[in-house]
Write a structure and sequence with these properties.
This protein is of the alpha+beta class and about 290 residues long. It is built from 6 helices and 13 strands. The strands form 3 sheets. The protein has a 7-stranded antiparallel beta sheet with strand order 3-6-7-8-9-12-13. Strands 4-5-11-10 form a 4-stranded antiparallel beta sheet, with no helix packed on it. A two-stranded antiparallel sheet has the order 1-2.
């Protein structure tokens, strides 16, 4: 109610279509998660020598090792779409990050989505497909596009660097006030879970994130993706994503391993870059949990 003057955080944020007149838009904390992600690993074992192993309290991932998992992206409460596919990713130490002031580890991820439910927004793909068809129908235009490819890529890279576009996307995507809210809620939930664990009458109790209510739904979508892969289906959508874990009580990183507590919320940041069939870049802030 004070226009951001009595708070360290702004109440509106620039959406930078250009460097001259960025319109400012308000933001608010949604009561329901706009996007939820789910990964399902196979071959999980208690063998401490395995790249991924678990015990009764923790899951342990080897750093700098490729993992493969079934993956579901549930955006039914925001854009209305649910996608399922295969994720290939690797965890590594994260000394600095555009997303977090206290990064700990991150994963670089490639996702091939095999199935989907809900609407697709493919206007960018349709535009590029039209241009591609024009190239195929004109040998001279196709030759020109081939010859100018390297120069065009260099020009785009130079523009992104000189315009500060990457920094603008980060600045427009990170809401420090929201991040602090997520941190405070997560710490509160951890304290309540610890108290519940200490109470013998409520073993394993504590608050459960609402996304666990949809666990069965996302497991079914993951199964549909597995069947699609087995049938030799072609991916419908491809993403290059990243996932960052912030310093959170209970999360431990060594020279070789990432150790995360089971059924405990940890603070996460995620970047999404969709390549096909639609162009999209997104930054999200929230919490994650291993089960």
């Amino acid at each position: 109610g004070c226009g951001g003057k009595c708070s360290p955080y702004p109440t509106v944020f620039p959406v930078r279509f250009d460097n001259v007149h960025p319109p400012h838009v308000p933001r608010k904390l949604m009561s329901e998660s706009p996007v939820q992600w789910y990964w399902k690993y196979s071959n999980v074992t208690e063998d401490s020598m395995a790249p991924l192993h678990v015990n009764k309290t923790h899951a342990m991932f080897k750093l700098r090792h490729f993992f493969k998992a079934l993956h579901v992206r549930n955006a039914s409460s925001s854009t209305g779409e649910v996608n399922a596919g295969i994720s290939i990713h690797m965890w590594g130490i994260n000394p600095r990050s555009l997303f977090s002031t206290a990064p700990l580890v991150f994963t670089a991820e490639k996702v091939h989505f095999m199935t989907h439910e809900g609407p697709w927004r493919t206007h960018s793909y349709d535009k590029h497909r039209k241009a591609y068809q024009m190239q195929q129908n004109s040998p001279k235009l196709k030759q020109l596009a081939t010859l100018s490819k390297t120069a065009r890529d260099r020009a785009i890279a130079a523009y992104v660097g000189s315009s500060g576009l990457a920094g603008q996307l980060s600045a427009a995507g990170i809401d420090e006030g929201l991040v602090d809210t997520v941190r405070n809620v997560t710490r509160k939930n951890m304290r309540e879970a610890d108290r519940a664990q200490a109470d013998s009458s409520q073993k394993g109790g504590g608050p459960v994130p609402e996304f666990l209510d949809r666990l069965a739904e996302m497991q079914n979508m993951a199964l549909s993706a597995k069947l699609a892969v087995a049938s030799g289906a072609v991916p419908e959508k491809t993403d290059i994503d990243c996932l960052h874990i912030e310093e959170t009580p209970g999360v431990v990183v060594t020279e070789t391993d990432l150790i995360v507590p089971l059924r405990r919320q940890v603070i996460m940041f995620r970047g999404e870059s969709t390549e096909f069939p639609l162009g999209r870049f997104a930054l999200t802030t929230g919490t994650g949990m291993w089960e």
